Amino acid sequence: xxxxxxxxxxxPLNAVASYRIESFCxxxxxxxxxxxLLTRHWGESFKSWEDILSSNEKEPEIKHEKGYRxxxxxxKAKPKDSKFRLIxxxxxxxxxxxxxxxxxxxxxxxxxAYALDLLKKESDFDLVLVSSPxxxxxxxxxxxxxxxxxxxxxxxxxxxxxxxxxxQNKEDxxxxxxxxxxxLHVKKWMKNATLVTTVSPILANVFRKKxxxxxxxxLNGYEQKYFxxxxxxVYRNKTFTIRHLGSAYQGFDFKPIIYGISKFxxxxxxxxxxxxxxxxxxxxxxxxxxxxxxxxxLKIIKNRVSxxxxxxxxINSDVLLLAWNLYKGNYGTKLFDYLASGSxxxxxxxxxxxxxxxxxxxxxxxxxxxxxxxxxxxxxxxKLWEExxxxxxxxxxxxxxxxxxxxxxxxxxxxxxxxxx
Length: 421
Fold this sequence. Notes:
It contains 16 helices and 14 strands. It is an alpha/beta fold. The protein folds into two domains: 2-221 and 401-420, Rossmann fold (3-Layer(aba) Sandwich); 225-397, Rossmann fold, CATH 3.40.50. It comes from Brumimicrobium salinarum.
């Protein structure tokens, strides 16, 4: 099977979506597929959202690594919005009305000529898989199908989250209008898709019921290869260590966790506690932690760290914090690294949905609703830490390994290709 994967996000960009795309490329290749990845040029560093939106107009570059072909295209960013808010808003409405979605990451305009030329020159492609967001890549998939009649599959990681995944609908008038335009355009572009894959049970139901599309779950998962690295060393921390890894977005409620840790420290004044927040955090949430804890207890690491460092800190935490009160029916990505780590996971507040269900079934996890419950969990885990009994097996959830998820998805894609031959 010869497959073209098109994604705006890919390595060397150190972003969550890049790991998903890499797992597809490597996994499909290992199953015998002839894989080509089409993406944009990325710099080696990634510091902020502005880097994702910036231009990189290097000439097309082709690499052959890890058994598959990678094509990096020049990317020209859109001009800056008008400094006048009304003009900028009207321009956005016009773009969405015309089907120009998410023009700040306009992969459709930047990729379509090269992608079509590639499919015409190499006429033996069996399938096109497009991974979104941005949603304009769904438009590209439809465009390429209309020009070549090659079947296409849509991998959709996020879609109208404020409408479908937020616990409380956050749509204001502008969001409602833009989301409605998005819904209608995507419905048209999705019409001929052979299959839709997504990461959320709720989004899967949206695509099945509202779009009438055959949809399967392909969860984000964790990278098994990192947890099987021979260089990984599991050690007992000299100080009881509590960590939160990854972004803490505005709206996450950390107050019960903060109050619970404070109660634990007040009840056990002789106990030393190390609290680490690693990744890009919301300034308000950072402020809440800084107000509650001093520099001897709290360390905030704002810069992005390598995947190997993330894994090392994940497996060598005594308690991993997870606040998941914003979303419903959505796993995110952080959860799966946590599950594979063998460290104790403390979910607070819970989502009353799929994440909570998974943590309750997890061999080393707790769900807390209040600061008192957080304190009780920490006391229990501290005693286990003192006894050296607070860890479980690393990499004990192979069903959530990206490598295995990619194999399962490949079998689905192979059935599509075989049916068309």
